[in-house]
Write a structure and sequence with these properties.
This protein has a 5-stranded mixed sheet with strand order 2-1-5-3-4. A two-stranded antiparallel ribbon has the order 6-7. A hairpin with a 2-residue loop joins strand 6 and strand 7 (107-108). Helix 7 packs across helix 10 (229-245). It contains 10 helices and 7 strands. It has helices spanning 37-48, 82-85, 111-119, 146-154, 162-166, 168-172, 179-189, 197-203, 218-222, 229-245; strands at 9-18, 21-30, 67-70, 73-76, 92-95, 102-104, 107-108.
Length: 250
């Protein structure tokens, strides 16, 4: 008679608490084939601890809202398979994203992250926005131009916060704008249709702006979309240098 093997178990440590503090709680869930980290969190919440707070939406890597810290690294949990981050028998440890206020458990407050997008003038401002005139035709943006290629390189950011949570400079200086906000600013600096280039460069030039970046590359290394915010920040530094040198600022 064939002996049935006991199902394998995955041990999980999950941070529980709020902005005032908390601690890790330990859970055990069945280890399954092709199991994602988000699958694990969902199983804990549905089968073991219904009060566990976390955030997710699309489950397919489109929204970025399920990001959290997995074994010490910020990741999208819907696209991270357990076998990639924990060997059999190892513990899976989950924390909320770093550098952001904790609402409860694994859910963070993203307001400071998006407030910095606004501080970096991350909103598109068309050149003809203030004169009330309706343009005769759409602006022509040559797809092979250098500026268009620079903008295209960073435009797929979905604001998940992984780069922000991974940024050493944000950890040292909470006022630092962060890689996502400056990546967004760089895409707009290179958009020939935008009319706020000068104000945007001024916004990213202060002590909390691009010159505070130490180029540690954590944002580029950890970006789930394979974007390069470090290069965007370097581009802002170059633009500020040449504008100052040629007398185009202020």
């Amino acid at each position: 008679m064939e002996t049935l093997k006991a199902p394998e178990t995955l041990k999980v440590r999950v941070w529980r608490g709020d902005a005032a503090g908390g601690e890790f709680a330990e859970y055990a869930v069945p280890a399954r084939e092709n199991q994602t980290v988000l699958d694990v969190v969902t199983e804990i919440q549905r089968e073991i601890e219904p009060t566990l707070a976390y955030r997710f939406a699309c489950r397919v890597g489109m929204c970025g809202s399920c990001a959290m810290e997995v074994n010490g690294r910020a990741r999208w949990t819907c696209r991270t398979h357990v076998r990639r981050v924990a060997r059999p028998g190892e513990v899976l440890e989950l924390r909320p994203l770093a550098n952001l206020p904790v609402i409860r458990d694994l859910a963070t407050d993203m307001a400071p992250f998006f407030d910095k997008w606004a501080r970096a003038r991350g909103q598109f401002q068309p050149k003809d926005a203030g004169d009330g005139a309706v343009p005769d035709d759409f602006a022509v943006v040559p797809p092979e131009s250098k500026a268009r290629r620079e903008a295209d390189a960073g435009i797929e950011c979905i604001g998940c916060g992984v780069c922000y949570a991974s940024c050493d400079i944000v950890a040292w200086n909470p006022d630092y704008l962060g890689p996502a906000a400056m990546n967004r600013a760089w895409t707009l600096v290179n958009d020939v249709r935008d009319g706020a280039r000068g104000a945007r460069l001024e916004a990213v030039s202060g002590d909390a702006g691009c010159h505070s970046c130490h180029s540690t590359q954590s944002c580029t290394q950890h970006c789930p979309k394979n974007l390069d915010p470090s290069s965007a920040i370097a581009g802002l530094k170059r633009s500020l240098f040449w504008d100052s040198l040629l007398g185009r600022r202020g």
